[in-house]
Amino acid sequence: MQKKRIYTVALSLILMLVVSGPVLAEGGTSRWVIDQYTKSRLFVGGYDEATKTLKIGWQVSLKEGWKTYWRSPGEAGLPPRWGWGDAENVDRISVKWPTPHRLHIFDMETLIYNQEVILPIDVTVGDASEPVSLDLDLEYMICAEICVPQEGTYRLDIGAPQDLKISFFQQAQLQRYQDMVPIKRSASGVVVTVREGAKKHLDIRLPDDFTAVKDIIVEGPDGAMFGRMDSDGVRLFSVPYMARQSLAGADLILTILSQDGPSHEVAVTAQP
C-alpha cells in the first residue's frame, strides 16, 4: 500500500510538471493549437548546412468553407501579424508566401488560402552546434459568412541543427509549399506604365520568356488597391487600380502566375 501511494504521488507530480510547463517541440513540432475552426502548429521541415538555415513551417488547417489571407489580402481581410518573442541562437527570421488564390466576392478582389496552407519560414541560426528555441504569437483572420480573428501561441525547442533528424513526412510537407513560393527574378524587360484618366490602369509589358500568364498580382504603396488583370495581347496586360496619389515612380511588386509553370516575383518601378 505504501509503495502504491508513493507511486501515485510521483505520477501526479510528473503530470503537474507536464501540464504547467512550456509547450515544447516533440519530434520537431510544437503542440497543435486547436479550436472549432482551425488546427495549427509550427514544425521543422529541414536544415541547410551551407547557409545555417532551419526550414520551419507554420501549418494551418481550416474547417470546410473557411479561408485565411495572403500577405496582401486585397480589398478585404487582414494579413497575418507575426509576433516573434524570445529566441535563442537565432540571427534572422524570414517568412515565405506560397502563391495565393484570387477570390472575387461581393464585387471585391481578395487573395486567400483555403482548406490548408503551410507558410515556409527560414530561420538563420548563429551556431549550428547549439540548441535553437523560438516563440511565436501569431494573429490572423479567417472568414466564411463571418470573419473571426484568430490567435495562436507556439513554441519550438530544437536541438543542435547540425544533429537534427527530421522525418521524411515533415520534409515533404514543407517542400510541397516551398515549391509554390514565387521565384524572385530581375525586372529586366518588365515595363509598367501608369495610365490615368476616368479609370486608372497599370499597363504591364513582359519579356518574351513569360508564357501562358494566368494572372498578375500587384502590390504597391499603402492604400492602393489593384483589380483583376486583363490581357491586351500576348505580352501586354492591364491592371485597374485605385489610389489616393499617382503611382508614377512608385515601387511595385508583381507576382506573375503561369498556367503551366512556376510563379515569379518581380520588383519594378512604375513609369509615368
Any overview of this molecule?
The chain is mainly beta. The protein contains 2 helices and 20 strands. The strands form 4 sheets. Strands 4, 5, 7, 8, 10 and 11 form a 6-stranded antiparallel beta sheet that branches. A 5-stranded antiparallel beta sheet has the order 1-2-3-9-6. Strands 13, 14, 16, 17 and 18 form a 5-stranded antiparallel beta sheet that branches. The protein is globular, with a radius of gyration of 23 Å. The termini are far apart. The model is unreliable at 1-26 (pLDDT under 50).
Give the proportion of residues in helices. Answer: 10-25%
The assigned structural class equals mainly beta
Tally of extended strands?
20
Indicate the proportion of strand residues: over 45%
H and E order? HEEEEEEEEEEEHEEEEEEEEE
Number of helices: 2
Principal-axes shape call: globular
List low-confidence stretches.
Answer: 1-26
Cα-based radius of gyration, to the nearest Å: 23 Å
Largest sheet: 6 strands, antiparallel
Itemize the secondary structure elements and their pairings.
Layout: H1 2-20, E1 33-34, E2 38-48, E3 53-62, E4 67-74, E5 81-84, E6 90-95, E7 101-105, E8 108-114, E9 116-125, E10 132-143, E11 147-158, H2 168-178, E12 183-184, E13 191-195, E14 201-205, E15 213-219, E16 225-226, E17 230-231, E18 236-242, E19 251-258, E20 264-269
Parallel strand pairs: 12-20
Antiparallel strand pairs: 1-2, 2-3, 3-9, 4-8, 4-10, 5-10, 6-9, 7-8, 10-11, 13-14, 14-18, 15-19, 16-18, 17-18, 19-20
